[in-house]
Amino acid sequence: MEFTLLRGNQELADAYNNHELSYTMNGGSPDLREEIAKLYGPNINAENILVFPGAQVALQTAAIALTNGHTHSIVFNPAYQSTQEAPVHAGSQVTKIALKAVNNWQIDPRGIRENTRYLVINEPHNPAGTLMSPVLQMQLKTLAEKHGIYILSDEVYRFLEHDESDRLPAMADLYQKGISAVTISKPWGGCGITIGWLAFRDLSI
């Protein structure tokens, strides 16, 4: 079946008609990874992107890759449930820290142990819709660098800020051990496409 456009972008129609429909490479097709990498800074290329069938699998994969029964993880509550439960399912020791409305749901990263390896945040925050301050984001990065902790940032609602000037840097851009988890479903309205990804700089993960 050929897809044609009566008017509009013929290049898009040609890409649809000529795109191979066989199984793609693990981690996503090169052309998709290249396009996703354009959302990030110069340290993120196609090789720094892993594509998944939605962000749920991405969150689980990251937790399994970085944690085990000997490691400790820190998560925050309330938050999207999978960000909290993925390290639990991976067998990690997990500390859940409560966020409070009185301080605008800002995180207070405490409870770091000698074996803390993984910290999961949700920015912009789901369900509160609040944003971490840039100062707090830098403090978090500095703290994680000091202790060698990976930060996974669920950034599913990034690009939906009411004011673009409030947008925080992607964690994958900000921090060498930062991981950005994203899905096409929210900012781009592509829920049925079920494409999610992880962006990260550390290729040793």
From TrEMBL:
It holds the Pfam family Aminotran_1_2. It comes from the Eukaryota. SUPFAM superfamilies: PLP-dependent transferases. One of its GO terms (molecular function) is pyridoxal phosphate binding. Residues 19-200 form the Aminotransferase class I/classII large domain. InterPro entries: Aminotransferase_I/II_large, PyrdxlP-dep_Trfase, PyrdxlP-dep_Trfase_major, PyrdxlP-dep_Trfase_small. PANTHER family: AMINOTRANSFERASE FUNCTION, HYPOTHETICAL (EUROFUNG). This is Aminotransferase class I/classII large domain-containing protein.
